[in-house]
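Figure S4 source data
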Amino acid sequence: MLPKPHRASIVFYVSDINRTEAFYNEVLGLDLARQEGAEPFWLSGTLDHGLEIIFFEMEGKRGNTPALVFDITDGGIDDVVAALAEKGVTIVTPVAEAPGGWSADFLDPDGFGLGLWQAADKPRSLK
């Protein structure tokens, strides 16, 4: 059985992180904080009901977001991706290094992009 995700974040890929920071902080009044681990930096914040929103400046993925990303809290991302592939799930991006950990992207049956992320200090395999 696959480990159950314990929380999810909505991730946006944007063309100008500084413009995004100004809009969400100054226009919408959200409290996004600058984070290190991606260049130039990335933004994160938590809405009142606990949903985390994350912004990365990135070419190529814009327009395919926001993306729902599930946090694999206990690790085992390699096992999860392998199990999804065995069940016929389309893996878009295999496990790769991501800010603070590891990530992978896949499609649901209707073609919606979903992602997985786990912290770097957790084991990639639980087997």
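Figure S5 source data
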Amino acid sequence: MTDQTLRSASAPSNGHAVVVGAGIAGLVAAQALAGTFARITVIDRDTLPAEPGPRRGVPQSRQVHGLLGGGASALEELFPGFQDELVAAGGALGDGQVDHHWFLDGFRLRTAPSDIPGYGASRPLIESVLRNRVAALPGVRITDDIEVVGLAADGPDRVAGVRVTERRADAQETVLSADLVVDASGRGSRAGVWLSGMGHPQPEESTVRIDLVYVTRHYAKRPELLGGRRLGVSVVPSPALPRMGVVMPEEGDRYALLLAGMFGEEPPTDDAGMLEYARSLASPEVAAVIESATPLDEPARMRFPAGVRKHYEKLKHHPEGFVVMGDALCSFNPAYGQGMTVAAMEGVLLRRLLSEGTAQLPGRFFRAAAKLVDTPWALATGGDLRFPQVEGKRPPGDKLINKYLERYRAAASVDPGLAATFLRVANLIEPPGRLLHPANVLRVLRYAPKATQAAQAAHAARHDPAPAHEAE
């Protein structure tokens, strides 16, 4: 089909779209749809809070969330002024290389001024800012306490709406008709089951099991902690120590502190246990927060067994009027903070495809979204497959690449340019291939030995007993 044909098949001005889920993916979907459909209904099974706060249907909303630079750019494109609104609502903004310390394989990335944005805000605050913007759009209605129980079909090849029921004992099932349904209901999506009810096969899945357990607790800010930096600190798990620690500022003059572990390394939830766990990390700043800051709530624990990618793009037939996005399409290891960012980038993609017309939208979206997801999925699974406990096929040259990246992480603790490139790739601002640029390879070869020797000397100084005359 030509571009001209696609444009001529645009949605009618009185078209109606339904979005399942009022989380981040659902809200960016609604914003993307607003330029095409006159009416948009966003449905959520939760009671949506009037003020920012966690909710039952998003259990991970109590946990630390990271908004990557690529996601912030996508949200700013979809919601002009988003960054200013987030800061005005209490979020923090800083230089992602200066104001946040990153520890990779025990090495701290070298700090230097950069153009990499870093954010500190809770998931509920980000969601609240976006929900207020979407709710103000003409023709948009956000409804809560309603459950989508299935799709309404117009034959086997077209979705014509959703079957819904209010969340009360005597509620009756009704049909909400729509020209397009977007499933943004998260990891618990029933889209595959719904499609199988129409006679379509469920999509293939790629799964990478990581057995991640993480705990988040909030603490009152203290000016002397984190060296006075605007943002925080992240200690990324490695095969040598599959533990993680993060401290990030949030609204309400508080820190969100996360401890995580993989493959049986489960962080405790008692004060003494959390402190001991934090002291095993490369950065002492995580333990310093637990030791000296006042806790504001009880620890919240969550398990994430595996990253799952659903390959809708591989289905031979896609019924018209139905697309899937966000965690319902691909859920990532949360240690990499990619979920909100990828959802926002999919929103930008959806708006672009809609500007070309609605004909064959599902097939076009799933194919383009697969290409979009390829990079963050490769980054996440590549990091996961470093761990010998993770089952999965390693790509050709995997050992060689991992050896180079180990040296890269070490060299990036000396060379700020290497550190900046690493952060741009991790923030989905630049492609992973930048790490292998010849100039970067030469710098890795130059600085990695120096960084490794310095780390070995520092380790020896910490663990070798001082001579008696020095101890006096």
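The chain has three domains: 12-94+118-205+310-380, 207-304, 398-462. The two ends are 83 Å apart (CA to CA).
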